[in-house]
Amino acid sequence: MRNLSMKIMTILRSIFHLLTRQITQRQQTNKEERKASSAKEEWPLEMPLLAFSKTDFFTLRNAFTGVGIFGATGSGKTSGSGQTLARSYLTHNMGGLVLCAKKSEAAQWLEWAKQEGREKSIIHVTPEKNIVFDFLGYEMRRATYGTVENCLNLFNRVIEITTKSDLSQGENAYFYQACQKLLRNAITLCHLAYGKITLRDVYEVIISAPKDEQEKKSEQWMESSACFKALTLCNKREKRKRRLQKHPQTNQELVLCAQYFLEEYPAFGDRLRSSITSIFTACADPWMRDDLWKLFGRDRDTVDPKTGKKPFYLDPDLCKQGAIILFDFPVKESYTGRLAQALYKYMWQQHMERRDVEKDGGRPVFLWADEAQLFVLPEADAEFAQTARSSRIATVLLSQNLSNYYVAMGQGEHGKNQTESLMGNLGTLIFHCNSHEITNRWASTIAGNEWRYTASTTSGGSSGFSSSESGSSSNDGTSNSMSVSETLRTILEPREFTLLATGGKEFNYQVEAIVMQAGRVWNATASNYIHATFDQRN
Q1: Start-to-end CA span in the chain (Å)
Q2: CB 60 within 8 A of CB 514
Q3: What is the predicted pLDDT for the residue at 302?
Q4: Are 295 and 132 in contact (CB under 8 A)?
Q5: Among candidates 95, 97, 120, 98, which has minimal Cα distance to 39?
Q6: How far apart are CA 325 and CA 318, in angstroms?
Q7: Which site from 128, 304, 331, 449 is most exposed, i.e. has the minimal number of CB atoms within 10 Å?
Q8: Whose CA is closest to 410, among 170, 219, 182?
């Protein structure tokens, strides 16, 4: 009888736990559904963010397709359309990442945030502050599979950012591919030996790898080499596994690493070995020093010896909660400013593209880059522009002209194609006053051509006198004709972009621009472009 009672109690407890789990899951589901519903109510796609005319609005849906702003220095692109967009994003409680090229930009954004009541949302990142973002540690914590290849991809971005070029193209392609193999094996070895991947560990493994057969057999090398230390640690661990397991499996990754560092690498010629090694070490060097190391190289649990506190962790996820990360590492002040902002931008983009807007509340976030050509990564940014919309990301890129992007994306047709891919995926283009012929001609081409009827008249007259043996005669007459022809003409001539108002006292602080959106006919103009005016005193 007692046993039966215990069985009944066990069954009842199981049912209770099952029901409790189901209720918890249902509550969590309801919470996520309420979050998604709340986002749709607070930030509907058709919500107007600003007006270009009384009947033409720029909506949240438009913002998610990206904005490109062009204008010469002094055209009012930042104080005109830039300011209007920025303050609208602030007003509507969007989170975001702001990159700073000039020293004055951070102060400008702080003032805008204060005016819109968002100063408490700002995370002001400066070199002096104890802030960290261990990008490799972040990737390892995030990734559920493919850790080595994901980290290799990050190292490639570091190389691309540092060299400002795509080494996989052109005459360096062979050495770049060989460097990829070196990095893949070094990253794998660090992961196997230490269970983590850090820039310093990878660097130490690579610079201490044996340079020839003689060094490989040297006791001095074995005692001092980080590469040999990591291989030995892995080998000991594998031996312990084989003793404990009845049917141990060979660790294929360790075998490949050992073959590479103990057989392939020492057999390389001096030129090949030095070339592929220097590609990595030269690019890694600045990231292991000063401000870049302080921000990206330290572990997030590192305690500051002066304050006894851990650093503030610059989690991109904060933007989904409404934070605005103001990255005050001005490019014009320091070379490291471009490196730091370009890498964090890439990590931020990756993070936001992976978001589940149905679960995280769906708050819109924005990426803001004035002097955007300083921060672009050719392939990464072109791909990001294609998919940002579904992740509720509003990208705003400001630059003087199209050629800035050509230079930043790389020389030749490849760079031009990458630029055109990026620009082609920005849904709204805003053109301020500009004297750059290529940009103005491109803007004119986007507006397109139209058939126009042209009427012309011609008139003429004739007079003459003739004589002969039989006598003489004279005549006086006129003739008129009119013709109508159909001519294909540009809708907007390139010169029109040179005549737009640039603000300031001369133009009563009014900044003019021509705005175009893919597939849109504006109500105010019944055309595919609209003249917009922005008040600098907004």
Answers
A1: 83
A2: no
A3: 84
A4: yes
A5: 95
A6: 8
A7: 128
A8: 170
User: For the chain, what percentages of helix, strand and coil (3-state, to nearest 5) are there?
Assistant: 55, 20, 25
Cβ neighbours around 167 below 10 Å, total: 19
Amino acid at 310: K
Q: Which two tokens stand for residue 201?
A: 């560990």
The two structure tokens encoding residue 483 = 């013709």
Closest C-alpha among 114, 465, 485, 156 to residue 324: 114
How many residues comprise the chain? 538
Alpha carbons within 13 A on the beta-carbon side of 491? 17
Could you say which DSSP state residue 210 is in? -
Which of these, 296, 294, 312, 328, lies nearest to 97 by C-alpha position?
328
- β partners of residue 462: 477
Overall CATH class of domain 48-132+300-442: alpha beta
E-strand ranges in 385-528 read: 393-399, 428-431, 449-468, 471-490, 510-517
**R_g (Cα) of the chain, nearest Å:** 33
Write the burial class of residue 286 (CB in 10 Å: 0-12 exposed, 13-18 middle, 19+ buried).
middle
pLDDT in tens, 369-413: 999 999 998 888 988 988 899 999 999 999 999 999 999 988 778
Dig out the tokens for 465 from the structure: 């006198």
Rounded CA-CA distance 429/513 in Å is: 10
Q: Which of 93-122 are b and which e, b meaning 16 or more Cβ less than 10 Å from the residue's Cβ?
A: ebbbbbbbbeeebbebbbebbeebebeebb
Q: Which two tokens stand for residue 44?
A: 């509907």
Tell me if residue 502 falls in helix, strand or coil.
strand
Residues with Cβ within 8 Å of residue 483, at least 6 apart in sequence: 455, 456, 457, 458
Distance (Å, whole) CA 3 – CA 9: 10
Residue 212: how many other CB atoms lie within 10 Å: 14
Residue type, 533: T
User: If you search the block for the tokens 């940009």, which residue do you land on?
Assistant: 439
Answer whether 492's CB lies under 8 Å from 443's CB: yes
Sequence ranges of the domains in the chain: 48-132+300-442, 135-296
Tell me if residue 139 falls in helix, strand or coil: helix
Picking from 532, 447, 501, the residue whose alpha carbon sits closest to that of residue 84 is: 532
pLDDT digits (tens, 9 = 90+) for 428-480: 999 999 999 999 999 999 998 877 776 666 665 555 545 555 555 555 555 66
Note the pTM of the prediction, 2 decimals: 0.84
* Sign of torsion over alpha carbons 72, 376, 339, 363: positive
